[in-house]
Write a structure and sequence with these properties.
five-stranded antiparallel beta sheet; alpha+beta; 40% helix; 34% strand
Length: 417
Amino acid sequence: MFKRITALVFIFVCTAIAWAILGSTILARTYSPISGELKSRVAASWGTAQEQTPPTASYQHEEIRMVTDKKGTKEIKTTSTVPLSLESSKIDVALDLAHRQKGLLWYSTYAVAFQGDYGFTNTSAKDQDMTFYLSFPSQQAVYDDLVMSVDGQPIPVKNAGPGVQGMAQVAAGKTSIFHVGYRSQGLDSWRYKFGDGVSQIRNFSLTMHTNFKDIDFPESTISPTTKQETGNGWNLVWTYRSFVSGYEIGMAMPEKLQPGPLAGEISYFAPVSLFFFFFLIFIITTLRGIDLHPMNYFFLATAFFAFHLLLAYLVDHISIHAAFAICSLISISLVVSYLRLVVGIRFAALEAGLAQLVFLVLFSYAFFYRGFTGLAITIGSILTLFVVMQMTGRIRWEEQFAKFQSRNPNEGVAPRA
């Protein structure tokens, strides 16, 4: 019996090493320099994270001064830029999430439709030619349907550094509404930044529409003042009359279940599944007098390993859920069809098949539920321990092992199917 247990431990250790190598290989494929290039390619074709800032409005003020020097008195004309304060902001943002897969990772790409109405007041005593400027939220992006207007009248748009600008005349003392709108694409997150440092915000309203339920606000951002759930997402509203803050408004796009990291975690955890499986099968066969040779356990271990090996390379091509289902079916079929020949169909399908379903399939599937994986596996382990303790509570192990060693090797073996 000691030699048999030693052989089982050796098989278990060798398989655990193989799983560690497989898990490391999966993570190396996931986070290799090539995967970094994949994200750069996604950003090049789809855009990067966007951070929108409010537009600015200003006019040129000319001043003539009389300067006297040794040569006499002369006029000096100076021109200065006078910025206008932002009186009001009414913004509407629609975020349309659409995940895209490259290699073993999903990327959170989105389309954004931005509309903003900003109020600026000409505080001077005469009409002014105002320059309105909007900085783009990202330099690595495409902007479609770009519109700029003042009081409902479209104004010519021209590029100006990292943004666009237009000009319109605003009467003295008048508050004009500068409207801007565009459609674009981004990656990972969208933010609205009020300004550098601590800013004072007046008459501000931002409404955000999402097509996803799993909303998450990044660090150093403000939670919405009101929110309403819709059929496929949320309507989030930030409204302030007079507000001073150094924070921003932001939305982190929800991440999809990542095939590469998930397959790697399941592979690293696989020895725990095999340990429980070997433990339960060893107890059952010992109690029933079924003779399973260490070579039989070796083939059972390879059937377990086949699940993770196939999963590691199948998730590149199909969804993680479909890959998991296919790998589970194949691995269970390997175990049941093999033990059917070794022991018999009843033990293979009932005891072994059910044990593999619990310890391999269900334990691995617990990794799909972030935050509950450890709890689910702990509960399963405790239930397994309870069942085994109840099964073996009245067993005299010394007598049981002695009986198992002295019996005929063919005794107690179920008929072959």
